[in-house]
Amino acid sequence: MSRPTNHPGYESSSSKGDRLEEQVFYLFKSRNMWAIRTRRGPDNGIDLFGSCMGYSFPVQCKNLSSNVTADHIRAFVGAMSW
Hints:
About 35% of the residues lie in helices and about 15% in strands.
């Protein structure tokens, strides 16, 4: 039986994802790295763009309970080819 969405301990996966992206964004900022969040919606899987020491890079946040797989990496690389 699943918990109702109005349960005090319930947090939607969308809300968890937003919170994780925000935490990663502030982690970058706290390390004096440039970072910008993408808009919510069709972002092709890219959640942030970061830059440090002359290198720019896309960031995809995943709130997984297991390790990142090769399929995750392939999907991320595919998202960057737009």
